[in-house]
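Tutorial sheet, problem 5. The three components below are modelled jointly, 1806 residues in total.
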Amino acid sequence: MEYLYLNLLVLPFVWMCFLGITFFFRIKLTENFLSESVKWISLIMSSLSLSLVITVIINRSQHIFFDYPAWITIGEYLFQSRFVVDILGSTYALLTSLLIGIIFRFSRNYLHKEEGYFRFIFLLSTLMFGLMIICFARTLDLIFVGWELVGTTSVLLIGYFYIQVQPVRHSLKAVVSYRLCDMGILAAGAWAHHYMHTTDFYELHELLSSPHLHDSGHGGTLALAFVGFFVIWGALAKSAQLPFSSWLPAAMEGPTPSSAIFYGALSIHLGPFLLLRFYDYFTHFPLLLWIIGIIGFTSAIYASAVGRTRSDTKTMLAYATISQVGIIWVEISLGFTQFALFHVLTHASLRTWQFLRSASIIQDFVENPVVQQHEIIHRNISFEKYFSEKIRKKIFIHALHGFHLDYLTQKTISFLTWPLRAYFIFEKRWLDLNNGLVKFLFKKR
Amino acid sequence: MLDVHNTLSFPAILTRIRNKLPIQNPLHGFVHNNILMMFEDKEFHDALSVAGQLYRAKSYWDLEQYKIKFHENKISEKDITDGIDQYSLHYHDSACAQKLGLSLKDFYHRLMFSQLAFNDDDVQPEIKDGTLWAQCAEKMSGQALDLSLDKKKYRAKEYWEKYYNESLASTTHPYIINLISSFLDQGQSFWANPYLKSGFWTYFCEDLEIVRKFGSDWQKNLGKKLDFFKGYSTEQIIESELTRMNIPREAWEDFILDLLFDLKGWSGMVNKLEVEPWQATVKAPNIKLVDFIAALLLIESSLDEYHALNHSTDLAMIYGREEITTLRSFQLTLALYQITNDFKLPHSWMNKLESGEIVTIVKNIESAEREHVIRLWHEAFENHFYREALSAIVSHDRGQLDVSNTVAQILFCIDDREESIRRHVEEINPALKTFGVVGFFGLDMKFSSIKHKRLIAQCPPVIEANRIVREVAKDSVNAQRFLKINSFIGGSDLSLYYMSRTLFRGFFSTIILGLLSIVPMFLQVFFPKQNKSFKLKVSQLISPVPATEMDIDQIQEGQGYTKLEMTKIVESILSMCGLKTEFSKLVLLMGHGSSSTNNPFKQAYGCGACGGNAGISNSRVFAKMANDPEVRVHLKDVGIFIPKETYFASGFHDTCTDEMHFFDLELMPSEYVEEFNRIKIDLNKACMLNAFERCQRFSSPEAKESPEKAIIHVRERAEDLAQPRPEYGHSNNALAVVGLRHMTKGLFLNRRSFLLTYDWKIDPEGEILKQVILGGIPVAVNINMDYYFSCVDNDHYGCGSKLPLNLTSLLGVMTGSSSDLRIGLARQMVEIHEPIRNMTIVEAPLERVKKIFDNHGRLKNILYNHWMRLCVFDPESNTWYLFKEHEFQKFEVEKLAIKYFKTSKERVIKSVTEDDFSEIG
Amino acid sequence: MTHSQSIPDYTVNTKWQDIFLVVLGFLGIFFLTLFFFNHEFSHLIMSGPHIEFSFNKFSSFLGLVFCLSLFIGIFPVRKENEISKTFIFYILGGLGIILANNLITFLLFWTFQRSLPGFRFIHGIRNGSTSGGGTYLVQHFITFACLVVLTVLASRSGYASLSFSQIPASFFTWPVLILSFIIIFESHGIFPFHSWIHDLVGNINWYKISTIFLARAGVLLFVKLIMPTIDQDPDLFKLVLLSLSIFSSIYWSVRGIFETNVAKITTYFYVAQSSLILSGLLADRAAAHGSYLQILVISLSGTALWSLMSYIQRHTSIKRLNQFYGLAQFYPKLATLFCLFGFSMIGTPLGAAFVVEDLVINGLLDQQPFLGLGHILATCLNGILFFLIFSKLFLGQTAYPQKIKNLDMSLGQMIPYVLILFVMFLIGIFPSLFLRNITW
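Model answer (structure tokens):
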């Protein structure tokens, strides 16, 4: 059992380093070699994770822990490298290796003769390595390692066509959301260290449910609640929930398979995955579950309203993804964790399939017998029937502009940085004053 | 107000603008067009320079690409001299040449090989010849030359970008693209735009009413402007705004055009949906180009005011500014030095001229270098191909027409992709005679197939299709069942498309369909071919397509054809192929089309003559007409005697999967079936060889091994979800041969030529030639030019790479999440194409050809303005004529050495890239 | 406004350069041996009448980092940069500060190094060539005054010429703490006393500025003077130091994000990173180790980034970073180096800064849970600033291509950079190797 999941971790890491080394020593790998070796890697990975899932189901899906010597030990601080294999981690690993295998096979022809093919394969292998770490990590610090790797590869793949300006501008948008939210996980890890001296989920759960919590020098419930809140904050950007959902539709600049794998399946569902991992912790703080529920519900409503006005395939799918992930958040907050995992798997595969087929929408519509000429397609609108014409028009216009989310974020950023910018102006004046003074002193008479 | 026919009145300006906008159809009805069709009244090179400015594109390859061809001696010295002769016929600014004491041709030749780079200010000149440098310096001391672009610049856009890096595109385009793509949407979004009926302008105003509260400052300016213009009509708004910006009336047209060409895709589509609303995928919204212009104009002027306020610059100074770059005396000396060296002039040439004159010479040479060099190289490059093609066709020994043992006559389309399959068919079984005839078989019909009710025009867009032909099931019982199941499946597909993207129904559909979708994804990505056969079996089980026949008889006006009309159609097509009396027992009518998956440009691979659709219905209808005994009776008195035992069978060749299907076989008399099957075996062998030839251009190694492997690879390619290059389509088309098959039989043309059959002997007055040329040549030129422009500058004329494409409003594609609607072909479709203008070779008496070209408007323009090249072989006097300087001149074709191969397969294996033409058999 | 000026091409006289590089290389090796075989002469102290130098573990580490990063920073771009003669004085001043073991020597060498730019500014103002430098002179004059007062106070109770470690805790009364607080923060460029850095950029060459920062005067004084007796000092003092150093990192990042001048942005990014060192040192032992490592990472990668930037500025006429220049098409090798250095500095996993970030934040939070959040915000803003610089410089396509020469770096020039990168990622993947032998 142990060698199973270890190989899942080691294999992508070795493959990533191999690619890095060949790049540095100027060895040009041919396209065929790359696609063949990548095919074999994803085959091995899928079979490994499949057998892992089966073994976990056989011994009735309780957790199996694996501890290794700490990565960093200084005095009493140690960066524990602890892994766990359970139903949640192994199913997500299976989903990852399956979908990445399909995407590798898909991009063999799709990116044929592209000069960025090597870069694409390298970034997807780093993504795979990051995801495997997240699947089997048992401590928040390890999850942060995988989190950052996935964030960086996603940004670099949005800017795949780095020659044009728009993909670069949109990848910057994604960087800001990712960095602001990764802060949450780092903070949660640090506070957990400080208050509970461990960031291991299971230990945290035991400590919280143990009766003599307060006397053994641990922080108050407010501080522990904050740790939970930081985890939610960390999961916000990755699953593009409000207020960080304006970057996802703009992230559709990369090639279709990269949008499919990141924003259809794997990177978007890391938010719910983290919440499921941390679910035992949240059970101690009903308020946090309420927060998750509210965020999920509002982003679901927001995204589905805006998604209904989008007239191009990729942004429409992006908003549909946000609304489904919002529903998954609500499911987690209501406690249906098993169902939420099932919903993650189904949603990931459906969206990847819809992204990959997104180029044949015109063919589907034109060859569809129900679509008539010279007649607007009848779309069975559900609740909109109850609003009057005037209100429906107003809603449509607001929704078309994404309820002005970009404008609101602009306003908040300029509000938050206002004091600093005021200080910059003051400082400029102070510099000129000094220059004037010194000039007066040292100027030759 | 100026009256309408005054050229400066707004309606006149508007019509001129409409002509210059891109003319691409929505993608479902994509047809290859010469995107500069409206510029065909200008000479080719002039039109390209005008369009280059408009589209902000380069209209030729880079200079390096031609230089590489030169070093690979794909362009020889002879080609360069011929190219210069051809070019100097029309462009002879010899003023500059005389001053240098050179002949015009010599001047052009040296210009082509000069490396003048004197306005690049930090080029470090390695001065070898000190004295010459001193001499130039002395001549040029104190001189200055300003190279001002003659046109005044009225748009402030470049000014803001150059000096303040305020890019208009990043601020205003996301806003306007969002509006226009939602308004033009044909059904892709779940909420239809509520303003479709009330018009774009009301929508634009009401939208701004809300957005100005949340928008940035320039949108507040825009809001104020709209309040000011409340109640005005959009024409009045445009006129008053332009006068307010005090732009002179003459500059209005260029200003608005430049404004529209920022979003050339969307403006072209707005114009198309207003002028030809029936082209819309579903229903054209109530939009007028004037509204769109007004919106763009107001946005731009409010943004200008916003920037002017921020950067405190005076707008009046920006509108109508002159951009001048001045060359100082140092650069002038450098220029003079380089000119003397590159042009190998004697040092003393400049002594007699005083420095003012020399400055003007430098100015002329600089503009000549900018304008002529790239064109000369292009002419030379094209010339190489023309010489090779002509010498191959001239030196091809035709042998005599053997009409003897023809087992079957096969009518293929004139498409250049069919050239290779015809060659393979003839090699395998010489008894099969092939003909090239327009793919829509002369049927100007709107066809509605049994599967879906849409009326699709199956004829070239030039012809007005007004007849309706329906595909009717033989027995109506299981037809009703099929229609019911079919519309049920269609309805569920459509609602599933919308439901899976909404909230609550989206939830349920994800739960139910989620895991199920892994199966089709896994199958289609890993095993495309098995997936196709599996899908066919399933659809056969659920809703077997009933046996159908074509209802072509005319019951009431506009429905089907009368017998007389049928005879007229059959007569025109058969006479085109020169078939009057000698008919073999079997005549196969091969329509063609292409099947590919996940490909927004599927329509671009279809049969150009059938408006981009598959030619199946055309061949079935024509076969039914030709087999009709009554029609055959009428045909006799028109001079076409089809023997009773001749049977017309309808077939279809899929150019992507290289499969051949045949229809209505149950109608075929039983004694032919055995003969027909033997022909089918030969045809399948030909398909395999054809696939093998195509696979040499693809890069997968196992497909190149043998025809058997090639056919499997090619069929897998058509079904592969991830294949951006299912086939290379019309790449490398450059030739069109009008004449009998024996002119090109046994000649390997490397799939580069349209082949139109025409027998000059049976057409004394040239009536048939008129039909053949009118049907084929405009289509060939359209395809050639579409590929030319998309290949030459794929980012501006074409639509860039296929990878980030994002389908919008069922009309077209955008790159990434929001961009301009992209026109033209993708990079993957034109990556192996060589941009060469079409050369047509006609085997017919000169008079006939001249008559046709002179009294047809478009053909005249294309020919006289060098959009194509025409050579005529007069069989009577056995002489070759080349169209030059507006008249036909006799010319002697020099014979080049040509390689000889036993079979096409051998030629294909041996040399894929070197020379295109070789002898076979 | 961005015009394309022609790029002056001139020959660089390399006579002085070779001498400097040899001196730096020699010193680097000397300090390296010192650092590794330290237990023999950890107490080696050279002491003149009042001057006292100590070669203990920390000083030799600082010296090693000083020489190594300067050598590796200048060596690859020596053809592009004209190194002026006064550079030797900067090096001497820097080394003097690093090795200083008592207040007087520190005062002496500190004034010596910091006065060099001062003279340059005065000279510039006198003949009207440079307009800046005013704040630099004002602030350094104030700090010089504080330093003199501090030494006078110390000499009154006889500690002036005493080596730092022997000064008893009782000496650190409130006025002494305030004075040392001002001196440390001013010389390290921390928030309230930081404005002099704005003057440095643009008037002084980048390698001279990096010598001033690499001397780490503020850090040295803090570690030698304050650190041993930190726990006796009042908590308020530590709190103020901590919050100000974190806030200054946020200040520099936001200032970098809103700045467009190319040279200034790199300096702001460098200073934003280095002001986090102090916050690490203030927290507990683990965080101190983190800052120790951070000094190594920032010095090596930071100086490398600076030299790459000087290489770019030499070959292109880029002045303001207000559009996407798309240099990656012209300089692919340079772009990859720049990107990898940045990743190893802002804390992407497998990079060195990730380990540092983790240590410092966890150590810091054990002290001040809420203040630690400020540190996390600072690292996140640094990351955003780096991505902004990288994409503005290397990605995208400029509408008006500058006169860019396709002179990408030769392989020879890249070897030193690749060496540092290898070290960075080695730290990132196997941190315990380095942390084990970092002791006080």
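Marking note: The CA atoms of residues 147 and 367 of chain B lie 9 Å apart. Full credit if you identified this.
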